[in-house]
Amino acid sequence: MTAQLPVLSEQSASAGTALNGYDRTITPADIETFVGRTGESPQGYTVDGALTVPPGMLMGLYGPLIHGTFDYQAGVHVSSELTLNRLPRADQPLCVEGRVLDLFVKNGNKYVTFSVEVSDTAGERLATVDHTSIYSLRAKGG
Amino acid sequence: MTTASTEMRDLPTLRIKAINSASESVGSIHDDAKAREMGYRGGLVPGVTIMGYMSRLMYENFAGAWTEGGTFHGLLRRPVYEGDEVTVEAVASARDSEGQIAVEIKVIDPDGNVCARANATCRAESEAQA
Question: What is the pTM of this model?
Answer without folding.
Answer: 0.90
